[in-house]
Amino acid sequence: MFGFQFDRRMINIIIGILLLAAIIQFAANPGMLFSIVLSIPGVLIAITFHEFAHAFAADKLGDDTARREGRLNLNPLSHLDPIGTLMLVVAGFGWGKPVHVDPRNYTRKMPMDKCEAIVSAAGPIMNIVLAFIFALIYCAVYKFGSMAFLSSTAGGIILLILQDIVITNIGLGVFNLIPLPPLDGSKIIMPFLSYNAKQWFMNNEGIFYIIFVVLWITGIAGIIISPVINWISIGILDLAKMIFGLG
Fold first, then answer.
1. Consecutive H or E run containing 29
2. CA-to-CA distance for 26 and 90, rounded, in angstroms?
3. Beta partners for 92?
4. What is the spatial distance between Cα 159 and Cα 153, in angstroms, rounded to a whole number?
5. Which residues, in sequence order, are bridge partners of residue 96?
6. Tens of pLDDT, residues 176-224
7. What's the gap between Cα 157 and its chain centre?
8. 198-204 long-range Cβ contacts below 8 angstroms, 24+ apart
9. Integer Cα distance of 139 and 7 in angstroms
10. Closest CA to 198 of 179, 171, 175, 176
């Protein structure tokens, strides 16, 4: 346990250095800074609803830990992790403040690992649902907005923000489905593993955490999931356009 915590501290230092380098790079490019400002609404919405969904699902399954810790709300300040939020803004991948749960409080109507899988899946599912909702809003604005509004600076900015909200939610949802600790995907797959596979997975959680961070900071994780994010983004926007009869 101590070794794992040490590794995580070292990894956080590495992330901090990379984050500082990214911020310096963005600061030197005004165009990138403008993109960062536009991405803030998407980041706040994506992280807040993602973590709220975890808290809500756990509460419904009988664990009131999140409720007692003040996480069962849509206040962004309750859910934002400083480094995770900045990483989502500057790198497109990040995280919120983890929602604490006590599996011992879950309903006994289903196995504990299935309850954990449901709670873990609630966050990414919420992000995909939000992406579709804002894709519909984007298409509604595009279809019913006047030509003068759509061609104005304000109209263009609003469309860019809505589009970014869609992409950010999809990015956060897909990113968290990677089946490696500490991401949601690592708990979602548990009910589908054999007993021996579960024990092996849990016994090597620290190693998997390090593997994940290496894949992330080297950009390999982004290379792997970027096509998935693009594919889902295009699919959701195309479906929304079809609903509104847009070509």
1. none
2. 8
3. none
4. 10
5. 80
6. 998 888 889 989 998 888 888 888 888 887 788 778 777 777 778 788 8
7. 23
8. 198/113
9. 46
10. 179
C-alpha–C-alpha distance, residues 214 and 31, integer Å = 29
| 171 burial level (CB within 10 Å; 0-12, 13-18, 19+) | buried
Distance CA(8)–CA(209), nearest Å, equals 8
Beta bridge partners of 80: 96
Tokens of 58: 């756990």
Residue type, 242: M
Give me the helices (H) in the chain, please: 2-27, 30-60, 65-68, 76-79, 82-91, 112-144, 147-150, 153-175, 185-188, 195-203, 205-217, 220-243
Active site residues: 51
Measured CA to CA, the distance from residue 228 to residue 243 in angstroms comes to: 23
Tokens (6 digits) for 201: 């997975």
- Rounded Cα distance between 158 and 142, Å, is 10
What are the tens digits of pLDDT across the range 50-109? Answer: 999 999 999 999 999 999 999 999 999 899 887 777 777 766 666 788 899 998 899 888
**What's the full length of the chain, in residues?**
247
Domain boundaries, the chain: 16-243
Say how far apart CA 215 and CA 199 lie, in whole Å: 23
The SS3 call for residue 80 is: strand
How far apart CA 114 and CA 132 sit, in angstroms, is: 26
